User: Fold these one by one.
Assistant:
Number 1:
Amino acid sequence: MNKKKKMTGRQKTFAAIMIPALLLFFCFNTYPMIRGFIYGFTNYRGYGDFDWVGLRNYADLFTDPRIWNSYFFTFKYAICGTILVNVLSLLMALALNAKIKAKSFLRGVYFVPNILGGLVIGYIFSFFFTYILPALGQMWHISWIENSILSSKEFAWIGILIVGVWQAVAMTTIIYISGLQTVPDDVYEASKIDGAGKWKEFWDITFPLIIPFVGTNLVLTTKNFLMVFDQILSLTNGGPAQSTESISFLIYQNGLDGGQFGFQSANAVIFFIVIVLLSVFQLTMTSKKEEQL
Amino acid sequence: MMNTKAAPKASKPKVNWMLTVILFLGTITVFFPLYMTLNIAIKQPTEMTNDVAGALAPPKEWSLSNFAEAMRVTDFWNSLGNSLLITVTTIILGVLIYSIVGYVFGRTMATNKKYKFAYFYVVSGMFVPFAILMMPLVKQTAQMHLGNQLGVILLYIVFYMPMNVMLYASYMKNIPIGLEEAAYIDGASTFKTFWKIIFPMMKPMHATVAIMTALGTWNDVMTPLVIMSGTGINTLPIAQLNFQTQFGTNYNLAFASYTMALIPILLFYVICQKQIIGGVANGAIK
């Protein structure tokens, strides 16, 4: 009897904790998301009156060259970034996990870019790309960096990519190191007895064992790169000639200041769907691979 | 390199010196931008010639005047205060809210369908990018008079909730329920049991959550940028953005300001490096 009474008290406490938490979450996450969906069906400019336009925003999205351009830029950036970051990080993790001196110092140093804010780092690299790199280009006669790459329609995205990769490698490396530490030493000893080379040992033994970490890293890196914003703001501000407008940047720029509140809301909905599909796809891919092994 | 690694099986593997040297050389990629920043920050504009040496050669004379000027121009102490206020409040409230919510989920999910549903509802928020919430939130916070530090804190708490509640809920599996039952028999309330027994046991998780929240909020640009725009309230990163026009081409002033924006987080990192790397790895893998 006594115990039963206590348990209902426990249930009450649980409900008293959960209800405000869920309300808070609904108020600042679900509710604005629903409002975003609704704005997507209007021609709202961010102020004044608006009309319902049905699916017109969505139809217009597919014919708007600036939208296509931003998706093309963002995906190009995310795909190149994800590949670069994961290859570099895996190499870094193997090196930092090997038998080396000053291991914790080196790990500590290579992690620094992750803790620094993207905006300030962007400003610092912007100076490097605008003044230092062209000076070096003139000294060594490398024509494509003789002018600032950030003011070139062709190469500006590479500048953003360099900064993005510089920061992201730090975090991804740490996750790969944790992955490598889960591989027991006796597995390697067995392969040494078999006389397997380092390269073969990596592909046959290490890599399959850290596949779950590869999955985690691919999801995390792709998502972070798709949402690129800070570096764009400080490096190019979307330019030159709108060539480096990421999806998030375009939503911010035109949605809040460009009078396209409704239109960019529809864009944000599409972006949201893309992110969800991608996460689901990558997660199922990696879990399938794990099963096969 | 191969030979040194394939050392005799019985003895300890030898130190790979070549790799060590390569890794030390590689740290230039990290140190160079920081060196450049600090170097330009302590130089005077007259020393900034138009070649590489202008930016990279060490200054002839050390001067802290750029820092003093940057502090004045960017209203440094105010921005620092706002950044600290927002980050510290978010961490404290976040750890309290996430841990107790995670605790309730951890204890109810397995047996109660309602809580299980609520759990998936909250955790699925992880997929929601800020971009879709941004525009409606600008309207909503303005209507609720939350276009200020409090609004930003609330948004952070909600935005990091899915991830951190999941971390705490899964951590509850490590804490046997028997500990709580003993406390009930002694007549303690559920809340008191949580606070006295469970909360202290979650300590490793608190560190992870606090560190991830700290890095996320301290460096965030988008939320304060859109929520507090036009209010004149700056965080440290936002101040760098808003004072770009004042910096103009005075790079020495700008870089002094960037240096000061980087110093707090670098100090924090130097002091708690182990916990930060451990916490971040812990959080990302789960």
Number 2:
Amino acid sequence: MPDAAQKVSIQLRVNGKLHSREVEPRLLLVEFLREDLELTGTHIGCDTTYCGACTVLMNGAAVKSCTVFAVQADGAEITTVEGLEKDGELHPIQKAFGDCYGLQCGYCTPGLMLSALQLLKDNSNPNQKQIRKAIAGNTCRCTGYQNILKAIDTAAAAMRSAGHGD
Amino acid sequence: MYPRAFTYHRAGSLKEAVTMLSQLGEGAKLLAGGQSLIPLMKLRFANPVHLVDLNFISGTSCVREQDGALHFGSLTRHAEIEKSTSAARVPILRDCAAGIADVQVRNRGTIGGSLAEADPSSDWATVLLTLSCEVRCAGISGERSLKLSEFLKDAYTTALAHDELVSEIVVKVPPESSGGAYIAFKRTAPVYPTASAAVQLSLEGDRCTEAAITLGCVGLLPIRVLEGEAALRGQKITPKLIESAADAARVAADPQSDMRGSAEYKRQLVGALVKRATEAALQRARGQQVEVSHIYA
């Protein structure tokens, strides 16, 4: 029988802030972020590694946080949608999603923005094909994607002209 | 969704992981990238009592070249292989790594985990069977090396003993005059392919000296198309010969009807994929740079 009472100590940095917690091993990273840290910007969609609504960056790499245990994020740096805004200024990706109408209901948006962030960190001037490939793991059921593609393209241009490091 | 409760163990080395498996018994499972295991646990199809986490072991996520072979640490993520300049020397490996699911899954999923799971729909086994590939397995009493074809036993079944793990995957770099390509047909990125085909050809001038054709998702294991390979071997490859290799693939396939398509549909599909993959492999064997990508419905 498993040790049902087992708790594991983890320490991780979320949006720059250090958190130490005792967690059950089966606690998923997305639940940890939403329930323990009350960062509810990260959404749960399909809960089966398909839709990408729960996408966050883990040590700079986009992951589906419904498919990572919180214990695996021990020692990691996590970025969620709440970490995009700096000093009351929207991140260029957030601004572009608004300006380009890259969202309707908004459910998939946090995940899409984090996937876009990973893309633009690695490639400041992606072409259409590269943008499409980068968001292939994020499902949107409202927009038909065209405005999302426009938003990422617009954000890339804005970040290039601002010399954005992140 | 929550998995059943389990006890978590974090291995500091592969050796420690093997010891843990041996002490904890049959209820223990290894956690590599987790991109198949965690969903299976959440759906309660898999209910391990103990989980041994391999992700904190250093040095297991790497690609290195040694003596004409690529050595992949068992926890090398698909994304690392996609970006690896060493792996780029064998284009079929890049086709595979860059086409698995989506960015998020490729950032976590591992080559060792994929082979050890032996899902009939997984990409790596299909691709690696066209190359000379050995799977290094580590157990309590030491290491052994198996050819991939000996390692894979059945759907979700490998030669691994309960207290053994995959420590390394060794792939011989094919000669300059060899080229390969892997093409899958998928409904969307995050799902498994409906069918896939991997082809690796070696040329001597115009003549094909070696051919390997493997089909994915159309049987309990990846299927070698031996008759198709024989049709190409020793010949100058013509469109007509490629057509006969595709015909042989349709005959060799053993698909099942499911939500991805009927058996007959998959049989036709896999023939078309063999044709396209053979054409791309041939161009690459001739030294041309060809971009290959999966086909999305």
